[in-house]
Structures are given as structure tokens and as C-alpha cells.
Amino acid sequence: MFSVCSHSLTHTTMSQSAFFKFSYNKLHHHIPLLFPNYLSIAPPLLRTTAAVRSNAAPDPPLGFLGAADVIVVGAGVAGSALAYTLAKDGRRVHVIERDLREPDRIVGELLQPGGYLKLIELGLEDCVDQIDAQRVLGYVLFMDGKKTKLPYPLEKFHAEVAGRSFHNGRFVQMMREKAAALQFVRMEQGTVTSLLEQDNKNVVGVQYRTKDGQQLKAYAPLTVICDGCFSNLRRSLCHPKAQFGDVMKSGRFDLSVCTSLLESPNMFLATCQVEVPSSFVGLVLENCQLPFENYGHVILADPSPILFYRISSTEVRCLVDIPGPKVPLVRSGMANYLKATVASQIPPELKDAFLSAIDRGNIRIMPNSSMPAEPYHTPGALLIGDAFNMRHPLTGGGMTVALSDIVLLRDLIKPVGDLNDASSLCRYLESFYILRKPMASTINTLAGALYKVFSVSPDDARKELRQACFDYLSLGKIFSGGPIALLSGLNPYPLSLVLHFFAVAFYGVGRLLLPFPSFERMWVGARIVLCAFGIIFPIIKAEGIRQMFLPTSIPAFYRAPPLR
């Protein structure tokens, strides 16, 4: 549907940087812009920062001139949206993306209503037009032959407000096109290999490799890293909250790891920074009808959930969750597993299309990553999107968190006239990581907790909690509307999440004790509460208890923008 024209950059002096536009089915135009000098002399010392910081100190070009206000690494959903909104505010933005071709992914296909509202705030809502995006009005849960419909609470919103599902690549390309159409956006294909530092403290730009293999440097007062879940710059800018015990359990802890921990703590953290609780096996079902159109379908299967949602008028995405950090089956064995184990658990209306999709053979596998993290407050650099923070994609909240972060960052940067005071700007933007917590921590916590609750367990208490969750949501009204408002990004309040989660647990206890309690049932009931606590507390602790529930007690919450 889309094609990306090839481009060649004409390299001129830094004061006359050639900007190019990339577009679909039309030739681009080079638009030269003259930028004023931000720095009169070269920085005294620059050195590169890769995954492990290098001691090399390459000399910068004499008379270094700031060619852009902001460098954005990555042109996915977060990067394209950020480039667009900053350029609309008059900032010069240089976007460097490793591959400008249309992405082909099996996740990032569902935008929650809260994310769509953020899209409207950014002026990007038309990016879901003309890509055959489908309206999503809620979810339907299936469990043991029963089903319950969970609509989004959209009564107070305009009729256009709903979730949207689509091909991720089409959506990303539309956002790239809209960003690149602005005068102050330069979008370039290249791979960023390192950050450039001044005085071993401030990040002043990036070093990158172009499509034709050239090694170039780009400079700007602010560099925003949003290059996705496979970011190679992540460990330079954040402190992943990895548990030491996780490495012990994994069997990877030996003398060499111990030595690495003593010599380089950051390298040790990087070995265990991203948790992979499961993987999605993706299929596309063609020319079939969902049992409930315009609803996402969640089958609480054995051993873990199966998802169905429409991504175009003729295609339905199926995602089968496979627990564990690695998929135990090769692709040839996966088809047999899907037919023998999964097919019998899906709705009958979808079974024929499901089997046909398996026979076509286009089976995709994607690891589901989860990573809470704390930032290193680095002057001149900022980390956002999946490069900084990930959650299980079961609830489809990733793009909602990313777009919410973009809106917040835009509002914080807007009153700042000069971005060149890196230390003051860094101190001010510490508030970003506090102010983002209500939305991000609510969606992150709910995603992790629901995945654990919905997955099958041999433990009796976990079984009762799973059944209690389904029955609680089946009650309707506030019992379903409250959790769905949290999941959809319409009610980003962590305390409300905790109250609903423990309401589910105590509802399960009540079901056990009525009408006639027994010692055995009381014991299982107590274990249900302990199980609920054991599921949600580690997630909340990783997100930050104080940041989630008492953000106003943190001084950074009140930071004012630096003086112009």
C-alpha cells in the first residue's frame, strides 16, 4: 500500500544542512535551511558513549554549529509523534531511524481509547484514517464455555472516541509521512551507534552510520532516545530494576558474572534488564467474522491467553501466548502444537479460519518483553518509549503510554526558550519521570497483574483467583467499567487499580466462604489474598511505591522551567 522513495543526502556545511522529506509514491524535495550558530567554538572534549562507554576521544569539527534543536533516535510511534509535535512548536528536529521501510510487526496494532485521545491532542488522529483501521469498543472474555462482554466506558466522550486496531506498519508510515511533511523535520535513515559526550558529562549529539555506510555525527542540545524494545543505547541512560535473585534463579550466576559485577555493575545489570515472561505466536485469519465485531476477543485458555482482534476489514489478528522466556518449539513443530492444543480452545466460528492460517504457514513469533526502569538523569539526553519502559502486551497499552509521554514532554518543553543549558534542562525534565507515573504505572501494573491472573496455574489459590476475576468482571457496571477504564487509559489512577484488584481477591474469598465456610475453604481464601498480594506488590515495588501513590511528595514534581 505504501512505498518509501529512496533518498540521497547532499552534505553541505553544518550551517547549511540539507533537509530531505520522505514520502509515499512521490518524489521528495530538498529544502535547505540556514540555522544560526548556537556554539561559537567547538566543545573542549567529545567522546562516544556506546553500550559500554568508550575511552576514545575523537576531535569534533572546528567551528561546530548546532544544526538542530532536538535529535530523535527512532521513528516509530513515539519518535514520529515527538518529531511532529516539537516541529509544530518551531523546534528543528533531526530524526534518525535505522529502517524507513514499512515495519512488519505482530504487536503495536491496538490503540486504546486513552491513546486515541492523546493522538487527538497531538493533532495526529488522521493517521488512523485511510489505513483501514477498525473501531474497537471493548473486549469479550471467554472462559470454560462462558463469555462476558466488557465495553469501554465511552458515554462521556465524543462519538469518534474509541479504540483503534490496524496494521502497525501502516500506522507508523502515516505518522512518519506527517512528521516529514513539516518544514523543520529532517528524517534520515541511519543506525545510531553511540552518544557523543562533552566533558564526559553532557550528551551533545550522536554518532551514526548512514545507509551507505558513512560514519557521521549529528549535534543538538537535546537527544531523545526512543528506538524501541531492542534499543542499543538503553543501558547508557537508565538503571533497569533487575533483581539479583533473578540471575541466581536463571542459573547464569558463576564466577565470571561475579567478576563482572565487581568490575562493571552497569554491565551486570544489562545482562538481566529485560524480562521475557512469554512470547506471542502471531497469525492472520482472512475473510472471517468475529463472534462480536468491533470487540477484542480474549480467550482464557490453557496455559495462557489467546487474543483475536480485527486489523483490517478482511483480516483478524490471532496472538497465542506461549509462557516462558523461550519458545520451546521450532516453527515446524509450532503448526502441530497450534492444531493439537490451541485449535480446540478457540470459538467455533473462528476454527476453520484459524486452521487455514496455520496451513498457509506465515507463523510469526515475537518475545513479550517487560522492563521497569529508573533513568540516569543525563544532561542533554532523554529516554522514552519502549527503550525506557515496557510491559506485557496482553492489554495493548504500549502505544497509549508512549503517546501520553509525548504529550507530557511537549507540554514541559514548550515554555523552554533555550535548550542549550543542558544542566538546567536536565534538572527540569526530572519532573517528566514523575508526572508520567499515573498513566504509565497504572497500565504497566495492570498488564503484568492480569497476565499472571489469566495464566493457568496448578495452585488452587491461583485457580480461584482466576475464576474470581472472570466472575467479578461479569458483574458489569462499576465492576467491569472500572477495570476497563483503567486498562484503556481513560482512568489512570493507580489507587483505583489496587482497590479493584483486591476487590477481586476478596470477592473470590466471599465465593468460597458462602454459604457454609469450612477450615479448608478459609485456608484457600487466605491463600487467595496472599496470592493477590504476591502478584501485585512486586510490580508496584518495581514501578516505585512513592512515585505511584505519592508523586507530590517528590521535589521534582514541582520543578519550574529554566529561565529564558
Could you explain the architecture of this structure?
This is Squalene monooxygenase. Belongs to the squalene monooxygenase family. The chain has helices spanning 77-88, 113-122, 168-180, 234-237, 244-250, 255-263, 265-271, 331-342, 348-360, 398-413, 422-435, 437-454, 460-474, 478-487, 494-513, 519-543, 545-549; strands spanning 16-19, 31-34, 46-49, 70-73, 93-97, 110-111, 134-136, 138-143, 146-151, 163-165, 185-198, 202-210, 215-219, 222-225, 238-240, 275-286, 296-299, 306-310, 315-323, 364-370, 373-375, 381-383. With 564 residues, the chain is an alpha+beta fold. The chain folds into 3 domains: 70-135 and 159-238 and 372-436, FAD/NAD(P)-binding domain (3-Layer(bba) Sandwich); 275-370, 2-Layer Sandwich (D-Amino Acid Oxidase, Chain A, domain 2); 444-551, no CATH class. Strand 18 and strand 19 form a beta hairpin. Mean pLDDT is 83; it is low at 1-66 and 242-272.
Please state the structural category: alpha+beta
Largest sheet: 8 strands, mixed
The outline comes out as globular
Based on DSSP secondary structure assignment, what is the total number of beta strands?
Answer: 22
Work out the count of structural domains. 3
Low-confidence stretches: 1-66, 242-272
Comma- or semicolon-separated keywords:
single chain; 564 residues; alpha+beta; FAD/NAD(P)-binding domain; D-Amino Acid Oxidase, Chain A, domain 2; 3 domains; eight-stranded mixed beta sheet; seven-stranded mixed beta sheet; 17 helices; 22 strands; globular; disordered N terminus; transmembrane; EC 1.14.14.17; transmembrane helix
